[in-house]
């Protein structure tokens, strides 16, 4: 009896051969082609219509009181640019144009240098606006640096004048004890101040809104290639999903 019951049970074959897979794929190849060509077409259209964007870079060298010794710390300058001068200009720009600046403005300081890089990624149509923004920020920085240089020079000149007066006074009192030592020390200090004064270099603008050689973002060929790969995978998947849905529909119709 038990053997008879076993023999009456239906036998299911769950194995799927490569021939079945190939047959299913060929049967639904139109779905595969439709998905693949649609993805490729979308990728080509996107690649052609994707706006070109470039990096626009402005570069300045901060004022120095000696080679490698900068009047203002580059990190402090960047903090001022980010927290004060840029927000002020953003407010002015919004008031004049009723919109925000249509690109980001970033500030960088290459390590161990007194260089400040102002970088914006924008399209060529925005190049003039980028130049205006960068120029305005550089003007603010130049004004601050010029004031710092003038203040340092005045301070050094006052110290030099004071030492000169001290030297003259000491030279007039030749009989004073240790006058010669004091005069020598004053001369040495005045010379050091004069060297510092002559070594001061003002801020230098090296570039304003210079366009990068290559455009930003992925290459158009890469976009088309990725679209083709996505279309290939999506086409295979949808071909088998379509066949599965067709079998389920047929099975439900027989019930």
Automatic annotation (TrEMBL):
InterPro entries (UniProt xref): Bact_polysacc_biosynth/exp, LPS_length_determ_N
CC terms in the record's Gene Ontology section: plasma membrane
Polysaccharide chain length determinant N-terminal domain residues: 14-67
Keywords (A to Z) from UniProt: Cell membrane, Membrane, Transmembrane, Transmembrane helix
Location in the cell: Cell membrane
Signal peptide residue numbers: none
Pfam families linked to this entry: Wzz (PF02706)
Membrane topology: Multi-pass membrane protein
UniProt keyword annotation of Cell membrane present: yes
Chief place of localization: membrane
Chain ranges passing through the membrane: 31-49, 222-241
Name the UniProt record assigns to this protein: Lipopolysaccharide biosynthesis protein
């Amino acid at each position: 009896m038990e053997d008879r019951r076993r023999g009456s049970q239906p036998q299911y074959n769950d194995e799927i051969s490569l021939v079945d897979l190939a047959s299913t794929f060929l049967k639904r190849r139109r779905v595969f082609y439709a998905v693949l060509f649609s993805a490729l077409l979308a990728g080509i259209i996107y690649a052609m219509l994707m706006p070109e964007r470039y990096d626009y870079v402005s570069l300045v060298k901060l004022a120095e009181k000696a080679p490698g010794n900068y009047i203002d710390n580059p990190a402090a300058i960047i903090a001022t640019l980010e927290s004060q001068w840029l927000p002020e200009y953003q407010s002015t720009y919004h008031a004049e144009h009723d919109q925000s600046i249509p690109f980001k403005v970033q500030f960088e300081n290459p390590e161990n240098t007194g260089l400040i890089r102002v970088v914006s990624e924008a399209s060529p149509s925005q190049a003039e606006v980028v130049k205006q923004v960068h120029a305005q920020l550089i003007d603010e920085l130049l004004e601050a640096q010029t004031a710092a240089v003038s203040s340092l020079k005045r301070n050094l000149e006052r110290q030099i004048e004071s030492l000169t007066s001290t030297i003259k006074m000491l030279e007039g009192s030749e009989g004073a004890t240790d006058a010669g030592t004091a005069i020598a020390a004053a001369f040495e200090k005045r010379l050091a101040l004069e060297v510092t004064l002559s070594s001061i270099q003002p801020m230098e603008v090296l570039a304003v809104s210079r366009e990068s050689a290559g455009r930003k973002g992925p290459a158009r060929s890469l976009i088309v290639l990725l679209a083709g790969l996505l279309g290939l995978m999506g086409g295979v998947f949808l071909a088998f999903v379509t066949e599965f849905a067709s079998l389920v529909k047929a099975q439900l119709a027989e019930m």
